[in-house]
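Per reviewer request, we include the raw input and output of the structure prediction for the construct analysed in the revised manuscript.
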Amino acid sequence: MQIAIVLYDRFTALDAVGPYETLGRVPGAETVFVAEQAGPVRNDSGNLALTADRALADVPHPDIIVVPGGPGPLPLAADGPLLTWLRTADATSTWTTSVCTGSLLLAAAGLLEGRRATSHWLALEELKRHGAEPTGERVVTDGKYVTAAGVSSGIDMGLTLLGRIAGDDHARLVQLATEYDPQPPYDAGSPAKAPAHLVELLRSDLDLTLT
């Protein structure tokens, strides 16, 4: 089984690394980072780079596609090499997945038309404009498409799909090995729980990055 995690300029690091540390532990699987060209790719803050082992053209038929989000997806949503590759790779993939605003790329490629999907809460309306049926759920499975909400939910998506592929006990083992036992110091992880002034503050700041 081959798992391809897509990288592009200004991706969000945890969106890629969360699934890498969870879903990437499918027994016997090969996990590769891919980008339009092989080599280092900078994250959204510009101070971290992950290395794409292979170019998109070198990985035409992965079994699992993982598309991370970031402030970069909307400029990339115009037709180009990445969307073309997504359509081609999706035609033969077993699972096509995304984290955060990565679902906007899947939707822009026409892969989520009429399907239930999720994204970062600030991007749900944009997801709808691309033809998907947005939901605020943390992880959404519709057929072979598995989408995750904002950033940290990529860990949940990875464990969810790992359980489907390798069994619940293996997923639990990976959860235990990574000690993924969230006990956050604050209960402000969603717009439904966070203080209203913080929701508005983030909305005013991040609207600029999602357009």
